[in-house]
C-alpha cells in the first residue's frame, strides 16, 4: 500500500481515512466477540431464535423443500445468464461482462457473473471494482475508508499466510509494520503439518510485542489496527469445500445472491463441519440447534440390527446444512434491501441493520428526499457512522468486518479452478414408509454392481467405508481390515426415527441399481448433479415477480407502511400458492423466505426505522441539514 500522506492535503482537511473504529481493545483481537444473547437477532442469538418461533407460520413438514427466491427471467447453470436485476444506483462503474461457461467445463469464481465485483459493481460507488487506492485525490473519506478496509481483508485472507501479522495506522491507512513467525512457517512448509492453536498462541504473543513496539514509537494504542493473515486457513477451507462448492455457487445463483455467500462457511469455521461455538451454534455455517430444526436439520438415533443405536447429526453434512444457511441470507437480504447488509445481518441480526439505517437517516436527514439506496447507508454504517451505530445497537466491531472478511476470503480463492468432475454426485434418499432394510443388505445389493457405480469422493477400500465417507452425519464406527459391515454399523433403516426423517446419501445411480437387483425400498430421492438448483422458469408466477419488485423498492430505502401492506398481501398469496403446490420445492421455499422477511418487518426496530423516515418527510426541508439530527429530538413536523 502506498503512503496516503504523500499527497498534500489542505490545512484543516479531515484525514483521508477514519479512525480505527474496528480496533478491539484486547490483545486477543481476532477472537470472536461475545454479545448479549438477548439482543442478538442472528441465527446464533437467543432473541433471534425466539423471533423465529413467534414469527413463522409455515408447517415444519414444508421446510424440507428448500431452495429459491423469485427471480425475473430464466436461471440456468453458472455463468450464461445475467445476475439478478438490481435497482439503479448513483454509481456509474461497471464490471466487464462474464463470458458464458459450458456445462461441465472447469471454471473459476473470477469468471462468473455472480462474482460480487460484477453483481455489486454499480453499488458502493464501484468500490468492488478496484483495490484500495489511497492516492485517488478525488475520493471522499468514506469511500477511501471502505476501499482501504476491503483491501486490508483481501490481503489478510489472500496474501498473508497464517504466520504473518500486519499492523496499520488507523488514522491514515498507512501500513506500519509486519511480523512473520519464520521458524514456525519453515517447520510447516517442511513437514506439511501444524497445530494452528499453537500458531495462534504464538501470534498473540507477537501481537502484544508488536503493539508495544508501535506504542513506544509514538502510535496511540487506539490507532493501531492489527490484522492476522489467514491465507493457509483460506486454502484449507476451499480444500474442504472442494466437493460441494459448485452446489454453493449453484444455490447462490438460484437465490439471486453473489458468490460472497459461498464464503460464509469460510468466515464462520473455515468450513469445518464439526465445530460448535461457545453459544452452541453448529455446522460449518454456525446455526443454533433450534434454527436448524426449523429447517428440518435434526439430530436423532438410528437403531442397529444387533441392538443399540447410532447417533445422527445432520448439520455435519454440507448438503443438509447449506440450503438453510443461504436461505437465511436471502430472507435477511430481502428484509434489509440488499445482499451485503443481508450477509451482515446473518452475523449481526436484521434488527441491527434496521438500526444502522435509522441512524444514517438521522445523521443525513436530507438523504430521505434523495435517490437513496441502502448500500449507501450500509457503507456509512461501517465507516463514518460506526460509532453512532455501535452506541445504539449491538452492531459491534466484529459485525462491522464480517462482510469484509467474506470478500477477503473470496478474493483468496477466486482464481482457483473448480472442476465439476470432482463435485459430489450423489443421491439423498429416504426409505419408503412401511419398509425396513439393513445397511448390510443395501451395500450387498450395491456391491453386485459396484464397478459401474461412481462413489464420487468416497475412496474407501470397502462399500461400508465408502458409505461412511458419503455420510459423515451418521456416526458410524470405522472398520479397518473388515470386508463387510461391522455389527456396530449395521443400521436398520426405515422412513423415520423418533418422528424425524432418516436421510442418507448413496452414489449416483444407486437407487436404480438397487431396483435392478430386486431391492426396491427407497421412497424419496433427490439427485445432486449439475441441474440440482436450476429453476424451472414456468414455476415463476406474477406473485413472485411482484415480490421481486417489492425487494427492489426496499433497496431504494422503501421502508414504508405502504410497502409493509404490499408484503402482507404477497405473504398471503405466497402461502396460498404453497398450499396449492405442496410438492413444489420452489413454492415451499418462496413461502418460507417471505415468512422470515415478514417476521422482521413486524419488529420494533423496523417500526422505529419507518417512523424516523416518516418524521423526516414531514419536516420542512429548509429546517433540515445534514448532521442536524445526530443528537437531540427531531425538529417539529409540518402539520
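^ C-alpha cells above, recovered residues below v
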Amino acid at each position: 500500500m502506498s503512503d496516503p500522506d504523500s499527497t498534500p492535503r489542505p490545512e484543516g482537511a479531515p484525514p483521508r481515512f477514519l479512525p480505527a473504529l474496528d480496533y478491539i481493545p484486547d490483545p486477543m483481537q481476532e477472537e470472536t466477540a461475545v454479545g448479549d444473547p438477548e439482543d442478538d437477532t442472528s441465527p446464533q442469538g437467543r432473541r433471534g431464535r425466539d423471533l423465529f418461533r413467534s414469527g413463522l407460520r409455515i408447517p415444519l413438514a414444508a421446510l424440507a423443500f428448500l431452495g429459491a427466491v423469485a427471480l425475473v427471467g430464466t436461471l440456468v447453470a453458472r455463468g450464461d445468464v445475467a445476475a439478478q436485476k438490481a435497482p439503479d444506483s448513483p454509481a456509474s462503474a461497471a464490471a466487464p461482462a462474464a463470458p458464458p461457461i459450458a456445462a461441465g467445463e472447469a471454471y473459476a469464481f473470477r469468471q462468473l457473473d455472480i462474482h460480487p465485483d460484477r453483481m455489486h459493481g454499480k453499488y458502493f460507488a464501484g468500490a468492488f471494482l478496484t483495490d484500495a487506492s489511497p492516492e485517488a485525490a478525488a475520493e471522499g473519506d468514506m469511500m477511501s475508508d471502505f476501499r482501504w478496509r476491503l483491501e486490508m481483508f483481501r490481503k489478510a485472507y489472500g496474501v498473508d499466510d497464517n504466520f504473518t501479522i500486519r499492523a496499520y495506522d488507523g488514522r491514515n491507512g498507512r501500513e506500519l509494520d509486519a511480523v512473520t513467525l519464520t521458524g514456525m512457517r519453515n517447520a510447516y512448509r517442511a513437514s506439511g503439518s501444524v497445530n494452528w492453536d499453537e500458531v495462534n498462541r504464538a501470534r498473540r504473543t507477537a501481537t502484544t510485542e508488536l503493539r508495544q513496539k508501535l506504542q513506544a514509537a509514538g502510535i496511540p494504542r487506539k490507532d493501531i489496527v492489527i490484522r492476522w493473515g489467514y491465507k493457509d486457513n483460506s486454502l484449507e477451507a476451499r480444500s474442504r469445500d472442494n466437493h460441494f462448492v459448485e452446489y454453493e455457487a449453484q444455490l447462490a445463483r438460484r437465490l439471486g445472491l453473489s458468490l460472497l455467500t459461498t464464503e460464509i462457511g469460510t468466515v464462520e469455521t473455515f468450513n469445518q463441519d464439526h465445530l460448535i461455538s461457545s453459544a452452541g451454534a453448529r455446522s460449518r455455517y454456525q446455526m443454533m440447534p433450534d434454527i436448524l430444526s426449523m429447517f428440518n436439520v435434526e439430530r436423532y438415533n438410528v437403531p442397529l440390527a444387533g441392538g443399540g443405536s447410532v447417533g445422527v447429526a445432520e448439520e455435519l453434512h454440507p448438503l443438509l446444512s447449506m440450503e438453510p444457511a443461504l436461505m437465511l441470507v436471502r430472507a435477511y437480504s430481502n428484509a434489509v434491501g440488499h445482499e451485503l447488509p443481508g450477509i451482515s445481518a446473518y452475523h449481526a441480526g436484521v434488527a441491527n441493520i434496521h438500526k444502522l439505517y435509522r441512524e444514517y437517516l438521522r445523521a443525513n436527514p436530507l438523504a430521505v428526499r434523495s435517490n437513496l439506496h441502502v448500500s449507501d447507508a450500509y457503507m456509512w454504517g461501517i465507516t463514518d457512522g460506526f460509532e453512532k451505530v455501535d452506541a445504539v445497537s449491538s452492531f459491534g466491531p466484529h459485525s462491522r468486518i464480517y462482510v469484509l472478511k467474506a470478500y477477503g476470503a473470496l478474493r483468496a480463492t477466486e482464481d482457483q479452478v473448480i472442476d465439476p468432475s470432482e463435485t459430489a454426485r450423489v443421491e439423498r434418499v429416504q426409505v419408503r414408509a412401511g419398509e425396513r432394510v439393513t445397511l448390510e443388505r443395501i451395500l450387498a445389493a450395491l456391491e453386485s454392481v459396484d464397478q459401474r457405480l461412481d462413489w464420487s469422493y468416497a475412496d474407501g477400500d470397502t462399500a461400508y467405508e465408502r458409505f461412511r465417507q458419503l455420510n459423515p452425519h451418521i456416526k458410524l464406527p470405522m472398520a479397518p481390515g473388515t470386508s463387510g459391515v461391522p455389527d456396530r454399523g449395521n443400521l436398520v433403516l426405515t422412513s423415520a426415527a423418533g418422528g424425524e426423517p432418516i436421510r442418507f446419501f448413496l452414489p449416483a445411480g444407486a437407487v436404480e441399481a438397487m431396483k435392478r437387483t430386486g431391492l426396491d425400498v427407497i421412497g424419496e430421492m433427490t439427485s445432486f448433479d449439475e441441474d440440482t438448483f436450476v429453476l424451472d422458469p414456468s414455476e415463476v408466477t406474477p406473485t413472485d415477480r411482484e415480490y421481486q419488485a417489492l425487494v427492489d423498492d426496499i433497496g431504494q430505502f422503501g421502508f414504508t407502511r405502504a410497502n409493509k401492506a404490499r408484503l402482507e398481501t404477497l405473504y398471503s398469496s405466497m402461502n396460498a400458492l404453497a398450499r396449492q403446490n405442496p410438492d413444489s420445492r420452489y413454492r415451499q421455499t418462496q413461502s418460507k423466505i417471505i415468512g422470515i422477511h415478514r417476521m422482521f418487518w413486524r419488529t420494533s426496530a423496523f417500526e422505529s426505522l419507518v417512523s424516523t423516515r416518516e418524521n423526516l418527510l414531514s419536516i420542512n426541508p429548509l429546517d433540515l441539514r445534514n448532521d442536524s439530527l445526530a443528537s437531540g429530538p427531531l425538529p417539529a413536523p409540518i402539520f
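The CA atoms of residues 251 and 533 lie 6 Å apart.
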